[in-house]
Amino acid sequence: MKPIHHKAKKRFGQNFLHDPTVIGRIVSTINPKPGDNIIEIGPGPGALTQPVLKQAGKMRAIELDREVIPKLRMYCFGDGELEIIESDALKIDFKEFSDSPRSLRIIGNLPYNISTPLLFHLFEHLEVIKDMHFMLQKEVVDRLCAVPGTKDYGRLSIMAQYYARPEFMFLVKPGAFNPPPKVDSAIIRLTPKEHNEHDQTDVKTLNGVVTSAFSLRRKTVRNSLKSHLSEDELNELDIKPTERAENLTLDQYIRIANYLTAKKR
């Protein structure tokens, strides 16, 4: 059964998947199983929801567009137990849907206009999240996965990699969507890090340091971070003052944040 037609709404940033080959590849990448605690964000008319529901037997879907919900119910009728939550995912407390650590599996074709704030909202709930599989604008996926010394490496790369391990899964061309977006998309897997994989750094301090560094990314850290620490302090931390923001690793930013946190005490 083909997904029921629903006109995409610009205000919701909607682009609906329709390519069965791409859909099958995404479902295979997610690998849903009975007993999985799955939540889909922005299911639309259900192109991804239905095959995932068939394999998992039960799932939740968060949908803001109330007009598409009856079509979603109709399309997925008889394929499993589907709970639809009519809400903005940015306002959801995902902890409410899990009674054990690292049990939620979050999936979705995320609207381009809210993808970054939504990711940061999800990072606040990682203690209950097992993994996340998202369709995002390729440019965003490139930034999430970027390594030091590359043009895509920036605040999003560092903060995302502080919280999780990003994996670029595969590219999706515009023709897989209706309407086709003007850019390429990609599937990413984000696996939350265990607490012992990094220092329990003050995230607010880390974010402040990273934001300062990349607000003047063409300047050396001697200049971009001068409001935080001196050149001598950078040398003490084994960080060359002549480096630029995009050349520092996550561990080096964590080192700076931990030093500043200890200094405040």
Written account of the structure:
This protein has two domains: 187 residues, 3-Layer(aba) Sandwich (Rossmann fold), CATH 3.40.50.150; 62 residues, Helicase, Ruva Protein, domain 3. Helix content is 34%, strand content 20%. The strands form two sheets. The chain has a seven-stranded mixed beta sheet. A two-stranded antiparallel ribbon has the order 1-8. Helix 7 packs across helix 10. About 4% of the residues have low confidence.
Which SSEs are present, and which pair or pack?
Blueprint: E1 16-17, H1 20-30, E2 37-41, H2 49-56, E3 58-63, H3 69-76, E4 81-86, E5 104-109, H4 115-123, E6 129-137, H5 138-145, H6 155-163, E7 164-172, E8 177-178, E9 185-192, H7 203-215, H8 221-224, H9 231-236, H10 250-264
Parallel strand pairs: 2-3, 2-5, 3-4, 5-6
Antiparallel strand pairs: 1-8, 6-9, 7-9
Helix pairs in contact: 7-10
Spell out the key features of this protein.
Rossmann fold, Helicase, Ruva Protein, domain 3, 10 helices, two-stranded antiparallel sheet, seven-stranded mixed sheet, 265 residues, single chain
CATH architecture title of the largest domain:
3-Layer(aba) Sandwich
Strand order of the largest sheet: 4-3-2-5-6-9-7
What about the largest sheet?
Answer: 7 strands, mixed
CATH fold name of the largest domain: Rossmann fold
Structural class: alpha/beta
**Can you identify the CATH superfamily of the largest domain?**
Vaccinia Virus protein VP39
- The total of beta strands comes to 9
User: What's the shape?
Assistant: elongated
Number of domains: 2
What is the average of the pLDDT values?
91
Unreliable stretches: 4-13
Span from first to last CA?
A: 62 Å
Q: Work out the helicity level.
A: 25-40%
SS element count, helices? 10
What letter string, H or E per element, gives the SSE order?
A: EHEHEHEEHEHHEEEHHHH
CATH class of the largest domain: Alpha Beta
What Rg is obtained from the alpha carbons, in whole angstroms? 20 Å
Strand content: 15-25%
